[in-house]
Design brief:
Number of domains: 2
Helix content: 25-40%
CATH architecture of the largest domain: 3-Layer(aba) Sandwich
Organism: Roseomonas indoligenes
GO molecular function: ATP binding; ATP hydrolysis activity
Order of helices and strands: EEEHEEHEHHHEHEHEEHH
Pfam family, one: BCA_ABC_TP_C
Strand order of the largest sheet: 6-7-8-3-9-10
CATH class of the largest domain: Alpha Beta
CATH superfamily of the largest domain: P-loop containing nucleotide triphosphate hydrolases
Domain ABC transporter: 8-257
Number of strands: 10
Keywords: ATP-binding, Nucleotide-binding, Transport
Radius of gyration: 20 Å
Structural class: alpha/beta
Length: 268
């Protein structure tokens, strides 16, 4: 990972809402081909940072670079078109639609003929194009191992399966950078293990760069190449998981360790 150039770079990014500072001069880089996790206590600014990268928020100060170009003022749909996909902390599926159709929505910006093209759907290239996209979606369904629910209504599925479908919809963009906002939240142990395997497969087999917010420290330490820690909107540190875990400020802010506590008393 060390030799790979950054695909994403944040330079001195700050974000204010009125008099409240959500982020203060945060700089970091995500390298091509890595799993980069952002951790920190509640209110640390993690989701705000992800919203700036995806374009939902515009930074008050600083800039964002992606794949060699500045995207600070670019709209979210343009960011999706150039290769930034994301999932949301709160599920954003269409409950009345099938799993297959939910994932197709993730590719709609790629349909040159338009997602809802009326009668033109059946004329010339529009139908062929839609079928090609459907084949791509079927490949994603196979890769993620959710063939058994492809025709099910999304709203009828368990929470863990709905999270898998939302991930599939983000992956349908075949993004260069995939942003995951607490992908394990609300899952049981078995579902977490399945999601962790899926994230690793996307990274290792499909070469997808991943930036992830996650509270489960075991998962973060197991699958991340590097970790950044935020606290009260400021960056505490960044590095390999084993380096971050022993950082004294991280132990205080994230693990609640007292200065005087010996290292061996802190739970792993």
């Amino acid at each position: 990972m060390g030799d790979h150039a950054p695909i994403l770079q944040a330079d001195s990014v700050s974000l204010r809402f009125g008099g409240i500072r959500a982020l203060t001069e945060v700089s970091f880089a995500v390298r091509q081909g890595e799993v980069f996790s952002v951790i920190g206590p509640n209110g640390a600014g993690k989701t705000s940072m992800l919203n700036i990268v995806s374009g939902r928020y515009r930074p008050t100060e600083g800039r964002i670079l992606f794949d060699g170009g500045e995207i600070t003022r670019m709209r979210p749909n343009r960011r999706a078109a150039i290769g930034i996909g994301r999932t949301f902390q709160n599920l954003a599926l269409f409950g009345h639609m099938s799993v297959l159709d939910n994932i197709m929505v993730g590719r709609h910006h790629l349909l040159r003929s338009g997602f809802l093209s009326g009668m033109a759907w059946w004329i010339g290239g529009a139908q062929r194009e839609e079928l090609a996209h459907r084949r791509e979606v079927e490949e994603i369904i196979d890769f993620l191992g959710i063939q058994h629910i492809r025709k099910a209504q999304a709203g009828t599925l368990s929470y863990g399966l709905r999270k898998q479908v939302e991930l599939a919809r983000a992956v349908a963009l075949r993004p260069k950078l995939l942003l995951l906002d607490e992908p394990m939240a609300g899952m049981n142990l078995e579902e977490k293990e399945e999601m962790a395997r899926t994230i690793l497969d996307l990274n290792e087999e499909w070469g997808m760069t991943i930036m992830m917010i996650e509270h489960d420290m075991d998962v973060v330490m197991d699958i991340s190449h590097r970790v950044m820690v935020l606290d009260f909107g400021r960056k505490l540190t960044e590095g390999r998981p084993e380096e971050v875990l022993v950082h004294p400020e991280v132990r205080r802010a994230y693990l609640g360790e007292d200065d005087a506590a010996p290292a061996e008393t802190v739970p792993a």
